[in-house]
Structures are given as structure tokens and as C-alpha cells.
Amino acid sequence: MTYETVIGLEVHAELSTKTKIFCDCTTEFGGEVNTHCCPICTGMPGVLPMLNKKVVDYAIKAGLATNCEITQYGKQDRKNYFYPDLPKAYQISQYDLPVCKNGYVDIEVNGEKKRIGITRIHIEEDAGKLIHDEWGTGSLVDYNRCGVPLIEIVTEPDMRNPEEARALLETLKSILQYIDVSDCKMQEGSLRCDINLSVRPFGQKEFGTRTEMKNVNSFRAAVRAMEFETKRQIELVESGGVVEQETRRWDDAKAVSYAMRSKEEAHDYRYFPDPDLVPIVISDEWIEEVRKTIPELPNAKRVRYVEQYGLPQYDAEIITSSRTLAQFFEECVDHGANPKTVSNWLMGDLMRMLKDRNIEPEEIPFPAQHMSKLIALIEKGTISGSAAKKVLDAMFDEAKDPEVIVKEKGLVQISDESALVEMVQKVLDDNPQSVADYKAGKEKAIGFLVGQTMKASRGKANPQVINKILKELLDA
Ligand code: ADP
Ligand code: MG
Ligand code: ZN
């Protein structure tokens, strides 16, 4: 029997507001333990939370960018459970009246478009962090993260394989970064997801029983977790078993998931409206104000890059995946560089150098103008393509104009024929065998001779000029 996988995601994104959701404490990541907190976010008795308006702004923004309806009369609810990282013993979340509902985002997998429903987006507060003592004598708790605002985005069970789920995660991440509501740094826990997954025989209408996997903290881990869970459920069903509705924890190091709690142990959160907080009333004007702050989104940008700049679909997709990279690209083009040439540099050497240095496009230390200047230096023949790579590398380490780097490092390309003829002649004299090969009709021998001359010039000779001189001398 063949099976179909059904996946729905719950994505948590930490909002990039300066202060927390119910107090004025900073949301900054890290910091000395228990220094970013106050009586409100540590849940002392008798304190009053007050909702940070920016949190609602950001939630509305996320809702509009994902085609949701905005709930104009909403509320916040207490979700009751005890855990040491949750000092109030309840989390303030939203139960039945989330800020946004009934939206969608479009994803693309292998050139095929698909629309994924967004069930809801609600606001809530983050919990603290437990630090387990490495000597096993106890656990410590850091409340710095308590009360950092989150949005939770819940999707419909519309995805049918891990690739679609990954595309959805990437699309959501890029949208949230474009609208500037979250930095989405997975390594700092700013973006986290729970995976709901079930299987059913192909053609069956009803969904199978799902499990929920927590603790997935990279896109790669998410894909691995989904592949593992699909296989586990199919094998279970095939061998006559039944899938239990349960919460499982993914252990990426061991590449297995294991049961955390079953449905019977599932929490009854006893949700009720938080009596300390007033309803959230969102006027038409407020929604329109927020709408005005939404920039061109990645999908629209991609279409425009193909039409306006003639970029291949593939290039447009990669470059628009990051708002910063897209902006960098447009600035280079505005400074006169050829769009496809810029795109090649960005997708190739620039991306590789970012990866080598483990930095994000946001951290590129030089302006786009320097990139377009570098491209102009190659096009004018001042430097060779391989020298340009050295210059680009240096641009990451020293904040200097590429022209200055070229001069300092003596990378100016030698294109002057008279300066190169002698060098080429010497290479011919030193390599009689290759010369004979060429004369006997082995055209390939010329490549070796070009290489030898490049080497003799320590990479500075213009290869096209060498080629020309070689041909002239050999055919003479
Ligand atoms: P809970 O509050 O228990 O997490 P929800 O109704 O909010 O339950 O659903 C959570 C997620 O589970 C949603 O993303 C939804 O798309 C997904 N989901 C629901 N049923 C299934 C199913 N049978 N298979 C896979 N995913 C499912
Ligand atoms: Mg859930
Ligand atoms: Zn506080």
C-alpha cells in the first residue's frame, strides 16, 4: 500500500520589539542571567501587565502579509500549566479570538506553486530558560526571556511532504524578515516550529491520527524529523499497529524522536480570559496604518526581477529570499552594474564568503557601491576575474575601496602586449614539447601554454591577451 503524508505546522517567532510584551524590560538576546527582568515578567503577585501596542502592530503586519483577516475585537487568555520556566504558572496567550485568522501563503516546490492555508496568528509571551547543572545537582532558571513577545502562526494541514513544509518555513521566514517583525535567527531560538504529521493510505479522505514533534531547531532538522516520523508511522500501521496521538521530542543528534506525553496525559490548559487585560480593539484606521508599512514582499519582488532585470527565475528566487541581499542587488544595479553579472557574483562568491565567515547578508561590511565598482574593474580589464575574488575577499576584512585594494596588493592586470610578448616567448622556449604538440594539430596544448604564462606573471596577465599573442607567435 502507498501512503500520503499530511503535515501542519505551528511556527513561533520572537518579535523584534525593543521591550517585552507586558513590561519595559529589554528583549535583547543573552545578557547576564536574570538581569532583563522585573516583578511583572517574573510574575510577582499583585503586579499588572500592560500590553505593548507594538506587539499588536507586528501581529497585524504579519497577518496582512499572509493574507489573513484581522480580528477587530480580540482578547487575551491565560493558558494554565506549571513549569519552572513559567513563574506565573500560566502563559498569557490567545484562545478563541486571535489577532489574525483565515490567511494563506503561496509556496513553490520544484517549479510547482501551492497555496498553504494559515489558520490563525496569535500573540503570546515567551517563557524563561532552564539551565541544567552539568554536575547533575540541580537546574537553574534564567528569566531573561520571560515575557519576550511571540507570534504563533498555525497552518492548515495542507502540506504533503517534508519539501513543502520546508518551503513553507522558508517562505514564512523570508516574509517575517521582509516586514521586519522578527530577526528569525533559529540559532538564537527566534524562530521555532512544532511539526504535526500523520499518514493515510492514498485516496483516503479522512486524515490519520497525528503526532506533534517539538524541539526542532533548524530547517534541516525539521526535514529529518519529518522523514523519520513518516517512516515510523507507516511501519507502525503496516505492522498492524495504530498511531497514538502524542507529543514527541526530536533528538537531532541521534536522529530519532521519542514519545514525551500521550493524549491521556495531555494538558487541560483551563483557558480563561485574563482579567487583568482589556480587550484588544483594532479599528479600520489602525489596520490601514499598518498596511502602509508593508514593503514589496518576496513573491512580488521575484516576479519583478524576472520581468524588469531579465534574471532567470532561479537567480530571482535566491536573491529575493533575503530582503538585505535583494536590496544589495538593486543598489549594485542602480550604480550601473549589469544585473546578471551582479547576480552571478552574489549567488557565487559572495554567498560562499558569507558562509565561510558564518555571517548573514545583514553583516556584509562594505556598501553595494564597492561591489559594483569591483565589477566595473573587471569589465574595464583592470583586474582579472581571479584577482577580483582576492579583492572581494579583502573587502570583507578591510573597509577599503576596491580600487585601493587593487593598487595596494598590486593586482592590476597586465594587458599591455609589449610587456607580455617576452614572457610568452620564454614560455615557448621552455616548453618545446607543447609547441610541437600544437603544431601537430593538438589545439589543447595552447591551454597549457596559457597556464604557464599566467603562472609566470603570477596571475596578473590578461589571459585573453596571452591567448592572442600565443596564437600569433605559434602560427607565425
Ligand atoms: P493543538 O492545539 O492540539 O496543537 P490544533 O487544532 O491547533 O491542535 O492543530 C495544530 C496543528 O495540527 C495545525 O497546524 C494543524 O494543521 C495540524 N493538524 C491537525 N490535524 C492534523 C492531521 N491529522 N495530520 C497532520 N496535521 C494535522
Ligand atoms: Mg499544538
Ligand atoms: Zn519585566
Q: How would a textbook summarize the main sheet?
A: 9 strands, mixed
Counted beta strands: 16
Largest sheet: spatial strand order: 2-6-7-10-1-11-12-13-14
Structural class: alpha+beta
Q: What value does the Rg take, in angstroms?
A: 29 Å
Shape: elongated
The small molecules bound here are: adenosine-5'-diphosphate, magnesium ion, zinc ion
Give the proportion of residues in helices: 25-40%
Unreliably modeled segments: none
What is the oligomer described by this structure?
A: single chain
Q: Quote the average pLDDT.
A: 93
Blueprint of the fold:
Elements: E1 3-14, H1 53-65, E2 69-70, E3 73-74, E4 77-80, E5 90-93, E6 100-109, E7 112-125, E8 129-132, E9 139-142, E10 149-155, H2 162-178, E11 191-201, E12 211-216, H3 219-238, E13 246-251, E14 256-262, E15 272-273, E16 280-281, H4 284-291, H5 298-309, H6 313-320, H7 323-334, H8 339-357, H9 368-379, H10 385-397, H11 402-408, H12 417-430, H13 432-439, H14 445-456, H15 463-475
Parallel strand pairs: 12-13
Antiparallel strand pairs: 1-10, 1-11, 2-6, 3-16, 4-5, 4-15, 6-7, 7-10, 8-9, 11-12, 13-14
What does it look like?
The protein has helices at 53-65, 162-178, 219-238, 284-291, 298-309, 313-320, 323-334, 339-357, 368-379, 385-397, 402-408, 417-430, 432-439, 445-456, 463-475; strands at 3-14, 69-70, 73-74, 77-80, 90-93, 100-109, 112-125, 129-132, 139-142, 149-155, 191-201, 211-216, 246-251, 256-262, 272-273, 280-281. It is an alpha+beta fold. The protein has 3 domains: 3-289, no CATH class; 311-408, no CATH class; 417-475, Arc Repressor Mutant, subunit A (Orthogonal Bundle), CATH 1.10.10.410. The strands form 4 sheets. A 9-stranded mixed β-sheet has the order 2-6-7-10-1-11-12-13-14. Helix 6 (313-320) crosses helix 8 (339-357) and helix 7 crosses helix 8. The chain is elongated, with a radius of gyration of 29 Å. The model has no long low-confidence stretch (mean pLDDT 93). The site of zinc ion has 8 residues, from loops.
